[in-house]
Amino acid sequence: MNLSDLVKKLFRKEIGLDLKNPEHLNLVKKAYGSYYIFKNIYDKMYRYYKGDTDAIRKYLFVTERSNLKISANYIKKFIKEEVAYTLGNDITYESRNNDSNIIKDIEYYTAHWDELHDTDLMKYLLIFTQVYELYYIDDNADFCSKIIKPTDGYAYMDNASGKVLFFIHSFKNDFETTNSYIDVYTADKIYHFDNKFNQIALPTNNIFGEVPVTIGKLTEEGTDDSLYKDIKGLQDAFETNLSDVGNEISDFRNAYLLFKNAQVDEKDIPNMKKLGVIQFPQSGGDAAWLIKDINDTFIQNTLDRYEDTMYQLACHINHNEKLQSNLSGVTLQSRLIVLGNKCNLEIKSHKNIVKNRLRFLFKYLDLKKNKFYDYKDIKALYTPNIPSDDLATAQMLSQVPEGTISKDTARSLFSFVNNKVAEAEKVKKELEEEIDLGNGYDDISRVGVE
């Protein structure tokens, strides 16, 4: 059976993927080869995020001159700003059927997760435009998730249906620097290999009944529609020119003292420096420093142009610019409208991952806790971390006729309310306590009268 026929049969579920079968294992090896081709691209994108750019790596070294390398990492700056903007506030959940139990179980069964999980997930999504979220059951029988960067994993999928046939995870142990290992996730098994695809352990059962991974995609164009692709050249040019300017300034230390119509004995130079006096043996002698004349306006204009273009391509604004002191929250939001539109698209990509995460979480609850929920009942709510004019919101709500807007919707409009469901429960509890307290006072007053 050729490789093409095998793939068709696997996707049509005519046969199951069995890596004990040499033909099936050969398909995984072919996919692993494709993973390595893409890995080189993703490795370079990650290098740029960490500040290891071509401008720094290949900066021209000039003998006997200053060779400073100045890094100015705008790619990291822009990505961190977008992560803080989109996920600076925690994700909250809402049940379309007003089922409070489902919200409580989502929060309870993910309470052990790292608080930085979703922000890291968004960060890698913005760096690579693609990221994987892998699901598993840990030793405590808890539902867990691991972020897999595309430098460490590859999902083989059917482009027509979006179904993942298998997932390859390549990794190294902390105590080993040379040996690498490969886990291959299929619909029913997890196979364990070394980097030569020799089996090193018995397969582990996969309880989910499908490949337990979500593919997060920022855009269909992939790396061609990334921040790295947009501003890589400008990032390199800015760092190169900034380093050149720094080295030009440092090279001022190499200025020369020029004598005219005079000759100075080398032995006399230390004494001249000590006394601060130069004596010329004959008339017409003169001395002056020979230094460079740098056009700082041209240099600054060039660097400013690079910086401004990077801000424009990234859809960001420069927060270091001086603003008027009396700007309102609405005015600040209007300055962020372009960045906000960009981040809204990024939120939708992240939300796709969260949807599939909930689907796997509810599979886990069904299998392990005998709780059945429909993931389509859940709506994930994102609150952008931007300046908000809560006073204007309160004034607006006070002028709206009663019965026009629900209290649930009104609560969601305030920036300091991250979980409107929990907030509603707090209000209800406070009202009940006040009523009970009021009834207690009535009883006391009646006793006093009698």
Describe the structure.
It comes from Clostridium brassicae. Pfam families: SPP1_portal. InterPro entries: Portal_protein_SPP1_Gp6-like. This is Phage portal protein. Helices cover 47% and strands 15% of the residues. It is an alpha+beta fold. It has a domain at 256-290. Strands 4-5-6-7-8 form a 5-stranded antiparallel sheet, with helices on one face. The protein has a 3-stranded antiparallel sheet with strand order 3-2-9. β6 (181-185) and β7 form a beta hairpin. The termini are far apart.
In short:
This is Phage portal protein. InterPro entries: Portal_protein_SPP1_Gp6-like. This protein is of the alpha+beta class and 450 residues long.
Layout of helices and strands:
Elements: H1 3-11, H2 22-49, H3 54-57, H4 74-87, E1 92-95, H5 100-108, H6 117-128, E2 130-137, E3 143-148, E4 153-157, E5 164-171, E6 181-185, E7 189-194, E8 199-205, E9 213-217, H7 227-250, E10 256-260, H8 269-275, E11 286-290, H9 296-314, H10 329-335, H11 337-368, E12 378-381, H12 390-399, H13 407-412, H14 420-449
Antiparallel strand pairs: 1-12, 2-3, 2-9, 4-5, 5-6, 6-7, 7-8, 10-11
Helix pairs in contact: 4-6, 7-9
